[in-house]
Design brief:
By secondary structure, the protein is mainly β. It is built from four helices and 40 strands.
Length: 630
């Protein structure tokens, strides 16, 4: 979501000046993963098990900042080991890293700054004697390639095994007509090139003077042809997803994004909340993209994040042809880094669930996402970080049911998952990065210093699932360039959607009961100012029953730095909660006098500052909000 962007920008700035590495191997640990079929299960648990180790990367830059290793040293700072990316061969993955300490001249001088590696996963080495090979070091490319994007978004190999998406370009090597795989010894910096990707006549990601990016968060479809990305406007705190086709422009020697669709549609059929029969509301599972996170394994649907339950951000798959959305996770609290296994059977989602961070606001099951329609999602999503500390853990999820388990349960909580995971091509293992929760980070609660070689604050992990037999990737389906969205016209603003009109409505529970919903918009009818809900034995699942009231509203609050005027996109938001849960689970969700108010700092800088209290009690356990500034 929106907060993530500022964090990423700040992280990139830190990464560009930092030093971080990983080389040693941790002791293997076995932990339970998601529910699986008997063929994949361990006899003891009935679930697949993960055997987790570290993967080798270049040595950490020494304390004196001088690297003498012939293939370079990785930065020791938080985020120096960036995002892994998928390859078409299970023997390796890609990895964005930040090199540090390279000499100014000589062969090793190319190992500097942000780069992309190919990293072996099978214990073998490249001809250089190392388990890694830098595929971008020393490569010539023009100023339209953004080096800050080499560490994130993830690199991704195209189906032809000859080209790799890196940063905002496509890398390939070898003479014309005889391209090599990037792991081929014949592939050298001298014969490697990165061709930029353009959209709207500018390189992808180019940022204009107003701070609006020309695309960000791009992900490649398994078909190697389509790309999804979004555009973020900080002034309005909006992000809009787009999808388009990569086409090579021989005249200008660059790739162009063509036949672009805006993945937004003002039709009521694609709105999360619709009105039927006068004053009856319906929760509509369509167009649930929010921030795009990639594609399903067959390329038919785009992964995204939206509210499934109140104040919880979950993973969704939205069909490109129909716009129909289906939830992939269930009450993740918050998730956005995710990847589907190439065979389509599993989703590795990095979730905040289980960390205790968001239970106070997202922990109560059974509450529909009505108040989310005010757009509380950016505020909730901002709570998931505390400066450099992230509360993500890797969860293996069955995308058909949403059932899942944390694959590293019981591991050191000072190490948090970071950025996107990447599956091996045979769907038997997943690779992800971890960063030390604090230590070198400017957080109020200092964790133990890193014991990794060189004191590095990042490491590269691989979780293997021995019970999962190697499988072939799903064959990508032919995907039409015509989508449920709106064809993009250069220079034209994205289609504008209108909220549900001011009024009082009824939402019936799918199993029993109802909710009375009062919506108040601004005078123009363009923005919702408040949503108040009264629940009467409301239940969607027949096992969790909700009674009581809740309300969210846009407010001004000078102490929290809100822009004056309740209609502002940078207003504060106040929750007033008095809910009771009965049935399978029991509990309450309540605010103190004056409610619970968050300001824009939680969105823009991961700075948790709240006025008032919000507490959830679930099955006898009480969850309270973090302390301000933490």
């Amino acid at each position: 979501m929106i907060t993530r962007v500022r964090r990423k920008r700040a992280t990139l700035a830190r990464v560009a000046t930092a030093a971080l590495v990983l080389a040693a191997t941790l002791s293997s640990t076995q932990v339970q993963a998601a529910d699986a079929s008997p063929a994949d299960a361990s006899p003891a648990t009935g679930r697949p098990q993960a055997v987790i180790k570290e993967l080798p990367v270049p040595p950490t830059v020494p304390a004196d900042g001088v690297c003498t290793h012939p293939t370079g040293c990785v930065s020791a700072d938080w985020g120096g080991i960036g995002t892994p990316g998928p390859a078409r061969d299970p023997k390796y993955v890609f990895l964005g890293i930040t090199y540090a300490g390279a000499p100014q001249s000589g062969p090793a001088s190319i190992y500097t700054g942000n780069q992309v590696l190919a990293v072996r996963t099978d214990g073998t080495t490249f001809p250089n004697g190392e388990a890694w090979k830098c595929i971008t070091c020393g490569v010539s490319y023009g100023p339209d390639i953004d080096t800050s994007q080499l560490t994130y978004p993830p690199a991704n190999e195209l189906p032809d095994h000859r080209r790799v998406l890196v940063s905002n370009g496509i890398l390939e090597c070898g003479p014309d007509g005889a391209a090599y795989t990037v792991t081929d010894p014949r592939c050298t910096p001298a014969n490697t090139r990165i061709t930029p990707i353009y959209w709207n006549g500018k390189p992808l990601f180019a940022r204009d003077a107003s701070g609006i990016d020309n695309g960000r968060e791009w992900r490649l479809s398994p078909d190697g042809v389509h790309l999804v990305w979004d555009v973020l406007d900080f002034r309005a705190l909006t992000e809009i997803a787009y999808v388009g086709r990569l086409a090579y422009d021989r005249h200008d020697r660059r790739y162009e994004l063509t036949k672009v669709s805006v993945l937004a549609n003002p039709s009521p059929a694609y709105q999360p909340l619709t009105v039927e029969d006068g004053n009856r509301l319906r929760l509509n599972q369509a167009g649930m993209i929010g921030e795009p996170r990639g594609f399903t394994s067959d390329g038919r649907a785009v992964l995204g994040i939206q509210s499934l339950r109140s104040d919880s951000m979950d993973a969704w798959a939205t069909d490109l042809a129909t716009g129909h959305s289906r939830p992939l996770t269930r009450q993740a609290h918050y998730t956005d880094p995710m990847a589907m296994s190439p065979d389509g059977r599993w989703l590795l989602a990095e979730e905040v669930r289980g960390s205790g961070r968001l239970d106070f606001i997202a922990g109560m099951p059974g509450v529909p996402p009505l108040t989310a329609q005010l757009s509380t999602a950016p505020y909730v999503s901002g709570i998931r970080n505390n400066g450099n500390r992230r509360y993500f853990s890797p969860w293996l999820v069955d995308p058909k049911t949403g059932d899942g388990f944390q694959i590293n349960a019981g591991s050191d909580p000072n190490w948090n998952a970071a950025a996107d995971p990447a599956w091996l091509a045979d769907s038997t293992a997943v690779v992800y990065t971890e960063n030390l929760a604090c230590g070198a980070n400017p957080t109020p609660h200092r964790c133990a210093d890193s014991t990794e070689p060189g004191g590095r604050n990042s490491r590269l992990m691989i979780a293997r699932f021995p019970g999962l037999k190697p499988s072939k990737p799903v064959s990508p389906a032919p995907v039409s360039d015509d989508t449920w969205g709106v064809p993009y016209t250069p220079g034209q603003n994205p289609p504008k959607t209108s909220p549900v009109p001011t009024g009082t409505y009824t939402l019936r529970g799918q199993d029993r009961g109802s909710a009375t919903v009062r919506i108040t918009n601004d005078s123009a009818g363009d923005q919702t100012l408040s949503i108040a809900v009264a629940y009467d034995n409301y239940s969607d699942d027949g096992t969790n029953v909700i009674n009581g009231t809740e309300k969210v509203e846009r407010v001004s609050n000078t102490a929290l730095g809100c822009t004056p005027g309740t209609a502002s996109a940078l207003a504060c938001v106040t929750w007033t909660e008095d809910l009771t849960l009965t049935g399978r689970h029991t509990g309450t969700k309540r605010t103190g006098p004056g409610g619970f108010t968050l300001g824009p700092s939680v969105m823009l800088s991961n700075d948790f500052q709240a006025v008032g209290t919000l507490t959830t009690t679930l099955d006898g356990t009480t969850y309270t909000q973090p302390a301000n500034g933490s």
